[in-house]
């Protein structure tokens, strides 16, 4: 298809997504990166966040974590540590993870151990991004 590109999201465990999309927006480490069909060859580092794409006129999203993206021959490959479709995300678990991370950041110690602030901040970001994908922001929308 002339106005489509192949989108593949790959984790160490599985291929999360393999579809045709008319546009994709990935969470790059330096900001959001938009990719359209026939995009120039590119490799970019990606960050934790929602990967948004338009498939058959509907905007969809999924959660991705750190990794990289490669555009080549009208194919976008996103290779990341974790990738989760909205229906795979346990929203209650994500909220509990957010609560624990916020407690750690507030200085509460678990079993007398010092708080690893960087680890707590990263856990908080992942929890918030998962919730964002399951909220109305990440749900399917019809584009006009």
Overview of the structural elements:
The chain has 144 residues and is α+β, with helices and mostly antiparallel strands. Helices cover 23% and strands 41% of the residues. The chain folds into 2 domains: 5-86, ATP Synthase, domain 1, CATH 2.60.15; 90-134, Up-down Bundle (Single alpha-helices involved in coiled-coils or other helix-helix interfaces). It contains 2 helices and 11 strands. A hairpin with a 4-residue loop joins strand 1 (5-10) and strand 2. The protein is elongated.
Describe how the helices and strands are arranged:
Blueprint: E1 5-10, E2 15-21, E3 23-28, E4 31-35, E5 42-46, E6 49-55, E7 58-64, E8 67-72, E9 75-80, E10 83-84, H1 91-105, H2 117-134, E11 141-142
Parallel strand pairs: 1-9
Antiparallel strand pairs: 1-2, 3-4, 3-6, 5-8, 6-7, 7-10, 7-11, 8-9
Helix pairs in contact: 1-2
